[in-house]
């Protein structure tokens, strides 16, 4: 028997999105208990509808990782085994292809600590987020490596060098999930009309709050106001593994004043989403995927990259709206009082 935790969900927008992967106007599904998030993201979406090109989204990279852990007698044995494993990389790729129609091994990274050998395998996984796919492939790789390297011992199928659902530096450096940049140019008059602020004020606040404030707080590869809010709401509405907002929310907001207008961007190196897999068969998820046009017959990986771009656009809408609100004394709390306490 399966019970369900019901979370309020609304579709806001539409938002105008453009780019190599996806273009059009999309309503953004968000499931959240934080009711002010809907009108906030909706305000950002309204801004996008009044800007030439709307929100431009670019997928920079796409991969899923799993790290495994071996034990050797000492560091010399670990290094010698690593050299053999690297030399046999083409064979490892063939083993992965035997585990899945879609998994493909694209890179290998390593770390040696004492007598421990950490290997980080990186894969493409089609339209799946790929958690189970890469674990299954990594298991087959471990079995092969242990067979041809008897000096190694199995330690764990996951060695935390992945790094799954943890705030680390390695994911931003090497990549895990979809690396997406979303950007928009907001004319000054649109900024004044819909965001009730000036481009210069948003630029200044982004520097002082998101950059300097995060440095003072000791943030890890992160400089943003609240990516996690939009990511969680979007992940829940589209059947994703919500715990991946931990690494997903490690992103950077940038803002510049360009000839009086506002150029604004969000960089998200670790959006982990899929359009197939566990949770996607739930009726509300399937309907949201259909509305977002992420279920059509396309080349493997295209639908999930489309979804990642739409997710990044939702993050931009909410980030822009919140920063605009915080340039005005009292606006943020007034919105929460009106939308939450009164309700």
Can you characterise this structure?
This protein is α+β, with helices and mostly antiparallel strands. It folds into two domains: 218 residues, 3-hydroxy-3-methylglutaryl-coenzyme A Reductase, Chain A, domain 2 (Alpha-Beta Complex), CATH 3.90.770; 94 residues, Hydroxymethylglutaryl-CoA reductase, class I/II, NAD/NADP-binding domain (Alpha-Beta Plaits, 2-Layer Sandwich), CATH 3.30.70. The chain is 42% helix and 25% strand. Helix 1 runs antiparallel to helix 6, helix 3 crosses helix 4 and helix 8 packs antiparallel against helix 11. The longest helix is centred in the last third of the chain and has 25 residues. It is elongated, with a radius of gyration of 22 Å. The two termini are 33 Å apart. The model has no long low-confidence stretch (mean pLDDT 95).
